[in-house]
User: What shape does this take?
Amino acid sequence: MLVTSPGHSTKAHQRAIFDRQCAELRQRRRLHTAFGLLLFVALCIGSAVIGKFSPIALIEGAPKLGEYVQRTLPALHWSSLGADLAYWFYGLRKWLDLLLETVLMAYLATLLGSLGALLVCFYGSRNLALNGWSYHLARRASEFFRTIPDLVFALIFVFAFGLGPLAGILAIALHSLGANGKLFAEANENIDMKPVEGLRALGSGWVQTMRFGVMPQVMPNYASYVLWRFEINVRTAAVMGFVGAGGIGMELITAVRSLYYEDISAILILIVVTVGLIDIGCERLRHALIGRETLE
Amino acid sequence: MLDRISGLRTVETGSTEAEPTLSVRRLSKSFTNGPCVLSGVDIAIRPGESVALIGANGTGKSTFVRCLLRLIEPNDGDIRMFGLDVRALTSRSLRHLRSRVGFVFQRHNLVLRLSALSNVIHGAQARMSSPGSWYQALAPSRVRDEAMTCLERVSLDGKACARADSLSGGQSQRVAIARMLMQRPEFVIADEPDASLDPRAGEEIMRLLHETARERGLGLLFISHDLEHAIRFSDRIVGLAAGQVALDVRSNNANPTELRKFFAEERP
Assistant: This one.
């Protein structure tokens, strides 16, 4: 006859509880996985149907894509390459001026938007907000500014301030405020709170605590987000002209509407090169800033 | 645990001629959905007196010292510091009070990405709130000189430009003490300043804290888990158990064997 000691019976009981909990957990996970898969498939099918995403339409339309691109490219001959290029980029001077305007629009908009985001982000961080009201107000305001498409803002500002870059700058700045406000606030929420407590104990005010306890911790993140936003804003500023809000977009949309195919390709090449150069420059600057020591 | 050690209670009020720097009565604190951490703590500290606060983990020592400056809001009780009713202070007056009390944290609470000197300059923040002080490299030279003097006092002037995260635990704690000196405090609170340090560094820090408080005639309230430190560097030892003062005894009368019972068990 097998005699079981009380200790052994307790162990067996604990083991049984553990096994039962494991089985329950496995069952729950299977259910979650199955539900997740179903949701994933349903979303894929739903999106394809509603978006009329048809592989047949893709295959049928693809050759026309090539045809359009081909039309925009001029015939270049090796013997007269210089003259052909000069003919292709006949508006280079004007386009470069407009490109400069586009980049400067993006620069000013990024600056204004990021300054606004800096003011909003501390109120919109759960760990730093003055109270629940300030938190929700700051978060909802950021949400509003980044949810409205910047082209819609641009249309409103064109109506208010007239055609030109000012409308574009304001539209991009507001969108940047919303986007960076959220990113900055999320960076703030991940800080180490010990320095904040240390500064509060010194008698520092809220503003001083944010400036000296929070900002030194998050400045590399802020710098990274601002540069990233500048890259995005250069691309956005390039299409602001579609609604008359300044930059090279106006010239591009005029070329598209007037079927000046060679102008389209020339302007697009200039935009791609400019955006590419800015991307590379920003990336280098970002890495340099992140690696630098902060010895204020 | 309180029952087991209640027999140890040997309250010695001592001389009460001078008004206490700190006087706490019936201080209570409980966290939402949590146990009652402090339940009616009474304590008084006279000017220039050094008091060690001991107790097992979870007995509310850190909560207690944070309640004194309202870094954590207490639920009930009276706190009087420098004759001021701390719980009735407006946020502006509270900031002023905090600037008069040096607080040394267990984990130093320095801004790690800044230099040791910048962290020490933070100690003067309550005195320099003008926008000119927002960029500390541009802080007035007298402020920087004073910060350097504070760093010299803790023998760290050679590390003034080193980033705080490049310093050892002992060095960081010394920077925290220099920051506290920069405040020109009238009273010092230290929450386990020797806890995260090796025995030698812990000893150095406690001696430095004790010496600087003595040479400036400052009252000192410190938490320690090291009984030897508690006895050597204090005039009085106060023991907390289950959120209450269970012992208040002169350090020269303290019995280490009995004091050890305060660390016998942790609060669940």
DSSP finds eleven helices and no strands in chain A.
